[in-house]
Design brief:
The chain is of the alpha/beta class and 294 residues long. The protein has one domain. The protein has ten helices and nine strands. A seven-stranded mixed β-sheet has the order 1-9-8-2-5-3-4. It has a two-stranded antiparallel ribbon with strand order 6-7. Helix 8 packs parallel to helix 9. The radius of gyration is 19 Å and the shape is globular.
Length: 294
């Protein structure tokens, strides 16, 4: 089975982009019309996030989300064979000079995207910025899938660690600054984890405290990775600072600032967020009061 999957991926990586997007259309049809992949979760998330939208508007967003999800899946496979020129054409970094500035000043940065647009093409950033680049990832239960992710994201030199290992890396490598840490902080924490509760997309949301903790180790700048999908297969990224260099204690805290920035990004065009993720599976206890500081 593993060999068959490897051969299939190897075959797919030889195909041109036009083939990938033909495949994406087929994948969309299967997921949306035949399998109904996580349709209940998607419907619930969209309905709760946008209570002001009509059924027709929500249906449109749902359908467009599945088209984008199919695109994202084939683009993740395309990542295995994409050349730097492909990334240059398809993944525009609109203000990368801000990262050059922080690198020249020896300022550590945390790049904080959401699960919006295409977050798999992060490996490309290593070739464009002058940092030691580290990314936090969640280990997959399937070893083969885990190996594929490590290969795809790490092929250009990105160092991948699970959260606690990344924390140790920051602790023991402060002298190798500047460090660029890549951390998508909008995943759902485990039910037993210590969390903050915030208002995000009209509902109480459990948030990792990790962004603030990691920042206290880097003592640099957190940049929200604001993403736009310009058209099929083309993205534009803008890096938006959430704090000043060296600023640690702040109100609202970085977690709140991050989710505010992510919500703004989503509301610009809701089609491209990961609505199939059961982000709001848990609800807060009565004593856990969500905040929405601005």
């Amino acid at each position: 089975m593993r060999l068959s999957l490897r051969l299939m991926i190897q075959f797919l990586t030889l195909m041109p982009f036009c083939f990938f997007y033909g495949t994406s259309t087929f994948v969309y049809f299967i997921m949306y019309y035949i399998l109904g992949y996580r349709k209940e979760v998607v419907c619930k998330n969209l309905r709760n996030a946008f209570p002001e939208k009509s059924k027709t508007e929500l249906k449109y967003l749902r359908r467009e989300f599945y088209k984008h999800l199919a695109d994202y899946l084939v683009e993740a496979v395309a990542n295995f064979h994409m050349k730097v020129s492909d990334f240059d054409a398809r993944y525009k970094l609109s203000n990368i000079e801000i990262l050059d500035k922080y690198a020249n000043e020896g300022v550590n940065v945390i790049l904080a995207p959401g699960h919006y647009g295409n977050w798999e093409w992060v490996s490309y950033l290593v070739l464009k910025i002058h940092f030691t680049c580290v990314a936090i990832y969640k280990k997959q239960s399937n070893q083969f899938v885990d190996e594929l992710i490590l290969h795809s994201r790490g092929k250009y030199g990105l160092l991948l660690y699970q959260y606690h290992d990344a924390y140790k890396y920051l602790l023991y490598n402060q002298e190798t600054a500047p460090i660029c840490l890549y951390f998508a902080a909008d995943q759902r924490p485990a039910k037993t984890a210590k969390v903050s509760w915030i208002n995000f997309l009209n509902q109480p949301t459990a948030a990792f405290r990790g962004l603030d903790s990691l920042h206290r180790k880097t003592k640099g700048v957190v940049l929200y990775v604001h993403t736009r999908k310009v058209k099929r297969g083309f993205y534009e990224v803008e890096f938006r600072p959430l704090n000043k260099p060296g600023e640690v204690d702040m109100a609202p805290d970085l977690t709140t600032r991050y989710f505010n920035a992510l919500e703004e990004n989503i509301k610009e065009d809701p089609r491209f967020y990961l609505w199939s993720h059961n982000r709001w599976k848990f609800t807060p206890s009565p004593e856990a009061e969500p905040t929405n500081e601005t």
